[in-house]
Design brief:
Elements (H helix, E strand, L loop, with lengths): L1 H25 L3 E13 L4 E12 L8 E2 L3 E8 L1 E6 L6 E4 L3 E4 L5 E4 L6 E10 L6 E2 L33 H10 L9
Antiparallel strand pairs: 1-2, 2-9, 3-10, 4-7, 4-9, 5-6, 5-8
């Protein structure tokens, strides 16, 4: 009886250790928050916004979870070669040190380090106040969307979208694009 009890405890400890170790191996990316501030009235989000600046380090071979940002993300690759995969497909974008990119409000994507050295990225997020900078997709499911333009709705493109919703026809997709809140900043 005592031996069975010890075996059960050992099995439980080993099981938890494997789960914890798997989590560490699967998502070893590390972030360091450099600064956080609030804009009382931001034109980007048409209201109060939180600005977060951070670094993101991605180990060689690591693939981050599918996610989106509930605001805007502007990023600069400081070191390594970063690959960004859009949830809607269409090919990966590869960026090297010194290159920058932006991620649109809500667009599903993930980052990958397919190289042999650590990737270091500086991110600046502008999100509506009290929102997280990043939202992971449940169960790490690949999703497509939202559409960025009416052109993405054409030629049966509307059938590809699954985030934040699916469309029944091209007209619904076009309506979504045309009525989605956007901020266009005037250039002086």
């Amino acid at each position: 009886m005592k031996i069975n009890h010890l075996r059960n405890k050992l099995a439980l400890v080993v099981g938890f250790s494997i789960i914890i170790l798997s989590g560490v191996i699967a998502y070893a990316a590390s972030t360091v928050i450099l600064a956080v501030g609030t804009i009382p009235q931001s034109e980007f989000v048409n209201g109060p916004a939180t600005v977060t600046v951070r670094t993101l380090a991605i180990a060689p071979g690591e693939v981050l979870a599918w996610h989106y940002h509930p605001g805007y993300a502007f990023s600069v690759v400081k070191r390594g070669v970063l690959t960004v995969e859009d949830g809607c497909g269409g090919g990966d974008e590869t960026l090297i040190a010194g290159q920058a990119f932006e991620e649109l409000d809500g667009r599903v994507h993930r980052a990958k380090n397919l190289g042999t050295e650590e990737v270091l990225v500086y991110n600046t997020f502008i999100v509506p106040e009290r929102n997280p900078t990043t939202m992971n997709i449940p169960n790490n499911e690949r999703r497509c969307g939202p559409p960025r333009s009416v052109n993405e709705c054409k030629d049966d493109g509307w059938m590809n979208f699954t985030q934040p919703l699916s469309f029944n026809n091209q007209g619904e997709c076009v309506q979504f694009v045309n009525h989605r809140p956007r901020t266009i900043l005037p250039v002086p």
